[in-house]
Amino acid sequence: MLNPLAAVGRGVIGGCRTVGAVVLFALTGVSHLLRPPFYGRLFVKHLLEIAYFSLPVVALTAIFTGMVLALQSYTGFARFNAEGAVANVVVLSITRELGPVLAGLMVAGRIGAAFAAEIGTMRVTDQIDALTTLSTNPVKYLVAPRLLAGVLALPFLVLVADILGVMGGWLIGTTKLGFGSAGYLKATMDFLQVMDVVSGLVKAAVFGFVITLMGCWCGYNSRGGAQGVGAATTAAVVWSSVLILALDYMLTELFFAQ
Amino acid sequence: MTEAPPKIRLRGLSKAFGEKRVLDGVDLDIRAGHGMVILGGSGSGKSVTIKCILGLIQPDAGSIEVDGRDLLSMPRRDREALNDRIGMLFQNGALFDSLPVWENVCFKLLAQKRITRGKARDKAAEVLAQVGLAASVGDLSPSELSGGMQKRVGLARAIAAEPDIIFFDEPTTGLDPIMGAVIDGLIVDVVKRLGATAVSITHDMASARRIGDDAAMLHKGRIIWTGHASALGDTGNAMVDQFARGEREGPIQMELRR
Q1: How far apart, in Å, are the Cα atoms of A29 and each of A40, A146, A238, B157?
Q2: What ipTM goes with this model?
Q3: What's the confidence (pLDDT) of residue A1?
Q4: Are A134 and B111 inside 8 Å of each other by CB?
Q5: Among candidates A21, A42, A247, which has minimal Cα distance to A150?
Q6: Residues B91, A126: C-beta atoms closer than 8 Å
Q7: Neighboring chain A residues of B157 at a CB cutoff of 8 Å
Q8: Residues of chain B scoring pLDDT < 50
Q9: Does the beta carbon of A133 lie under 8 angstroms from any beta carbon of chain B?
Q10: B88-104: pLDDT as tens digits
């Protein structure tokens, strides 16, 4: 116990074991998507829960981010007479990075926490064991529909965030910074490439998978009553957020590194 | 006259969690069509025993036979088919919060596609009537039910698919004595009507005598006595008699301090 090397070794082994368990859990969840029975009703419920009910928070985040981005880039670019690039910077930043990352973080806080709390409560009140005794595979019933809903809902939310983020920039650009409406939109569309949007949507799908996976994993493995459910909820949000940021870098490297 | 083979046979069942050995070679025969009550103090391994039989916990050693077939070496499909014939009433009901009562009651039938959603409400009303609840209860959420009603709904869910083995985990815990007697009466009635084998775990002596034909006492991970439930309190085994009479002094010493 006092040996620091042993402590480090235990930590590394524990970490590897956890990563392996999460990967197995994810593969099991995905494999259940390919085998009947399918829980279409649950899938639609989770899709609505993620895509529809997260719309307000994602929309507000996107609009204000677009507005701030326009304002900041204008004041910054004004120092070397590059104010004309504001529309380009806003659309590029929103579609490639801020749309998927901020929407992902918002949904991680909202949905990751909710999934972990719900499944965690089911775990500590024997409801997951009850599923098994009722001839229902808990992973198929609880995890698989949520994973699919997350992968499909996040790109939709990010598409909305992209549009509203650009509109936020346009609003500030035309009302405060002196850009013409048509000119701002033309600059936006001229500069935007399909790959900018597609890369953001692919990121969103990956983030959607990670958020729902961590919410389900942390809840499914929670222990010890209310305190355990609370810890699972916190862990789901923290790990989803960290993974979103780490995967964002990796995916950016994959899409845009020269 | 040859004795009928047991419905469930446990031999050498062992399970440890870390260094804590919970089951230490449990041997037990449970007769078909009879009620077996497993007694024991808190932490004696009662719940772990039935979770091993249900396949919720994998034992470290030993065998579990149902109708002469070893569950632990059984193919997964056969194991799932066996689970279809088993019902379980959990200690706290373990009702699914997200579903109305009628869907809880018919969950297994719906999962096995033995009934359509359209007919499930009528079936739920029929089963609820068997446990003394009105059809209107079917539209309520589990959170709207009292403890006694939750037990009844849990019982309705356990018997809805007409299983031939039913497990009861502390069926009267948390109920007042009258409601406890009502639940016991319902258990005896439904088990007799279905001709099922019932396995109950409890430390409520009055309940044990009401619902059990046979009884077994689990102490420190081993079965230390088996006999007729009616003999409880006068078995000649000092430990069992102390437990049945609820006496403070005797061979069983509570570990108040570790």
Answers
A1: 15, 9, 21, 27
A2: 0.89
A3: 57
A4: yes
A5: A42
A6: yes
A7: 134
A8: 1, 258
A9: yes
A10: 999 888 999 999 999 99
Query: Would you state the structure tokens that stand for residue B86, as one six-digit string?
Result: 């088993």
- Residue B86, by phi and psi: left (phi above 0), alpha (psi -120 to 50) or beta? beta
Domain boundaries, given as residue ranges, for chain A: 39-256
Residue A210 CB partners (closer than 8 Å, separation 6+): A240, A243, A244, A247
Q: Of B123, B189, B212, which is closest to residue B161 (Cα–Cα)?
A: B123
Q: Provide the phi-psi class of B106: left if phi over 0, else alpha when psi is between -120 and 50, else beta.
A: alpha
> What pLDDT was estimated at residue B1?
46
A45 Cβ contact list (under 8 Å, min separation 6): A145
CB B227 within 8 A of CB B214: yes
A130 contacts B96? CB cut-off 8 A:
yes
Burial code of A216-250, b = ≥16 C-beta within 10 A, e = fewer? bbbbbbbeeeeebbebbbebbbebbbebbeebbee
CB pairs < 8 Å spanning A and B:
48
Q: Which residues of chain A have pLDDT under 50?
A: none
At B36 the pLDDT is 94
In the block, which residue shows the tokens 């009884």? B215
A130–chain B nearest CA distance, Å: 7
- CA separation for the pair B13, A146 (Å, rounded): 37
Q: Which two tokens stand for residue B216?
A: 């077994």
Q: Where does residue B20 fall: left (phi above 0), alpha (psi -120 to 50 degrees), or beta otherwise?
A: beta
Residue A236, Ramachandran bin (φ over 0: left; ψ between -120 and 50: alpha; else beta): alpha
Cα separation, A2 vs A104, in Å, equals 41
Q: What is the CATH number of domain B1-83+202-243?
A: 3.40.50.300
**Residue of B55, B90, B113 with shortest CB distance to A126:** B90
Q: How much is the pLDDT for B166?
A: 94
**Three-state secondary structure along A146-196?**
HHHHHHHHHHHHHHHHHHHHHHHHHHHHHHCCCCCHHHHHHHHHHHCCHHH
B12-24 core/surface letters (b: 16 or more CB in 10 A; e: else): ebbbeeeeeebbe
In chain B, residues with a C-beta closer than 8 Å to the C-beta of A122 are 96
For B212-240, the pLDDT digits (tens) are 999 999 998 999 999 998 888 888 888 88
Q: Which two tokens stand for residue A17?
A: 């074991």
Token readout for A172 is: 């500030």
Contact at 8 Å (CB) between A70 and A172? Answer: yes
What are the C-alpha distances in Å from A93 to residues A78, A101, B115, B142? 18, 11, 53, 48
Name chain A contacts of B87, Cβ cutoff 8 Å: 133
The whole-angstrom separation of Cα B36 and Cα B13 is 17
